[in-house]
Amino acid sequence: VVADHPWEDRKFQVGDTVFAGWNVMRIPDLSAMRVEAQLPDVDDGRIAVGMPAKCTLDTYPEVAFPGKVVELTPVAQAPPGQSLRRAFHVRIDLEKTDPRTMRPGMSVKVEVEALKLAGALLVPRAALDPAASPPKALLESGGESEVRLGPCNAETCVVEGGLAEGTRLRARG
User: Terminus-to-terminus CA distance in the chain, angstroms?
Assistant: First the structure.
């Protein structure tokens, strides 16, 4: 049961006055849950409506619930009463739910499959000098090799050319 008391931003309490027409409570349909998430503005452009998502409850990390991004706001906004960091509102509809383990308001980790590349050569970002022109991979021998980079995420980059599979690399610094 989710109680509403919108004018005071608190739940109803014993002794509160209730008038006709007021929503006193909402009973959620646990068979049709969805995820409401915030996407940091630095990730703009990587996520789009229709992309598949995997949602994992913090309380049950061993179980993943597949879903799809169905809504993404076009403008990033600062969450009310929080930091000035802007974020896009994202809604994910889940393909299946589990009313025994899922409840409204639970914390969820969301992974969106932004790009799927079969047979791609992935290299840790720490082994690259992307600021060099052209970008270079740092070889274990101490040398460098010019590379052609593809898409990157926070940890790795796709190397589309200039480096053979199995080449040993070193980290910067």
Answer: 54
- Say whether the peptide bond before residue 74 is cis (omega within 30 degrees of 0): no
Domains defined for the chain, CATH in brackets:
30-112 (2.40.30.170), 115-173 (no CATH)
Distances (CA, A) of 113 to 23, 153, 166: 39, 11, 26
- Give residue for tokens 């899922």: 102
| Beta sheet of 52-57, edge-to-edge order | 34-40, 87-94, 64-72, 52-57, 108-112
Closest CA to 56 of 67, 48, 71: 67
CA distance 60 to 51: 23
Measured distance CA(58)–CA(39) in Å, rounded: 18
Q: Which of 31, 72, 67, 30 shows the shortest CA–CA distance to 49?
A: 72
The per-residue pLDDT for range 48-96, each reduced to its tens digit, is: 899 999 999 999 999 999 999 999 988 888 876 666 778 888 999 999 9
